[in-house]
Amino acid sequence: MSVPSFGNLRILHVEESPFVRRLVRGMLLQVGIRDVIDAATGYEALERLAEFRPSLIVMQWEAPEFSAAQVLDIIRDPSRVREINVPVVVTTQRPTRRLLDEAAERDVQHVLRKPFSPKMMWERIGHFYPDLNVADLDPRIDGKLKPKESMLLDGPAARETAAGSS
């Protein structure tokens, strides 16, 4: 049996800012993820999904053309020939209560507030793939990453953040 590794993951990253796309791509490459496809808009994300089967989607909530909510409504529609049901991490500058509720309705497991560190990104990915051992990626990480209640949508810290910015 092969040992799980970040190198086996396929990531679709949706972000309008070229700078942030390069930054996040660098974070993902740093942990060994080699298969990263970028999209600048929600429409581009839909085009990429027609040809690319990601393991995980990292998507800006406020994506132009189609928002993350609209993209998720389309790809998770059970009446579609090919429903796409993969883990999603949403990024945003303002995680309001409304955003958290809308994301939860669309089965988004994590909302990542911008700006975020590589470690924060790795923790979110590690939540979906708990068998990945990333101790050698960063000296601040000891062994396998464990999901933290504060990074889950129903975690108290996420709700407190949203309550303060409704």
Kindly describe this structure:
- The protein contains 6 helices and 5 strands.
- The protein has a single domain, classed as Response regulator (Rossmann fold).
- With 166 residues, the protein is of the alpha/beta class.
- The protein has a 5-stranded parallel sheet, with helices on both faces.
- It holds the Pfam family Response_reg.
- InterPro entries: Bact_response_regulator (IPR050595), CheY-like_superfamily (IPR011006), Sig_transdc_resp-reg_receiver (IPR001789).
- Residues 10-129 form the Response regulatory domain.
Give a short synopsis of this structure.
The protein has helices at 18-30, 42-51, 68-75, 97-105, 118-128, 156-164; strands at 10-14, 35-39, 56-60, 88-92, 110-113. It is α/β, with parallel strands linked by helices and 166 residues long. The chain starts with 9 loop residues before the first strand and ends with a helix.
Write the SSE topology.
Blueprint: E1 10-14, H1 18-30, E2 35-39, H2 42-51, E3 56-60, H3 68-75, E4 88-92, H4 97-105, E5 110-113, H5 118-128, H6 156-164
